[in-house]
């Protein structure tokens, strides 16, 4: 025990992360030195993350998808123990924890309350009484249903809706950090925003928690299919950029050539007749005028021609936006269209 008692804080922390919380609590009673080592807040921050999931990682993945919940989380009074606090005093319990610096530190801090934080969180996850269990289950289920209702409009929902829904899932995770459904819904939010990388990250975590949760498998299959089509498999070049919001250089070059070919009057605008020709070439038949009007309104409108006059139709940006939207919905359709314009669907090079 003497050698264990003399370990530096950093080495002790690494060992303690593998201990059960009950064993660690017992170890704290062995000596004053071990009590100080085991009371280090840095240790308990790491242990909470290791045992119950890393909320910082969740916030970062959502931010990558354009959903910023950091302020809601940091200012929340409903989340325990991961509440963002400013330190005013460094307690004696932290004397062996050199990582704590000053009161202006922009990080999670738990001065002298590591054990209490873990205890409180443990009780939330595993309520001690039957009444607490029933209450927690009802609260979590109600919140989950509310989130599903908020997401009913799919990608058409406002950014505020996605932020509020994502934050409410953090509240559920506070009681049930091992809820696979939370990770599924976070992944669904990212998927709706065409943020495929964070969506797959959430799905991977959810499947590691509960691999038999069917919605996770179904969404993972759909996301992986789109990612394979968008970014290519084998020798296929990608259709979109890494963020999934713009064309890849290969697609941008191909669309510039397509635009020039379709712009028969060389005015820099695809008018109704030229767009009708585009649809006929890709779909095999000319669309009715009403469809062309709808297409123009969806991705174009009044655009400026090279002469300076305004023309109803599409410019190159409109054509690009159309193919980005189509690619996110069905990347194989974009490759088929390009093949009909004379491009190799794998390399996107003009045949």
From TrEMBL:
This is Uncharacterized protein. It comes from Coemansia furcata. It comes from the Eukaryota.
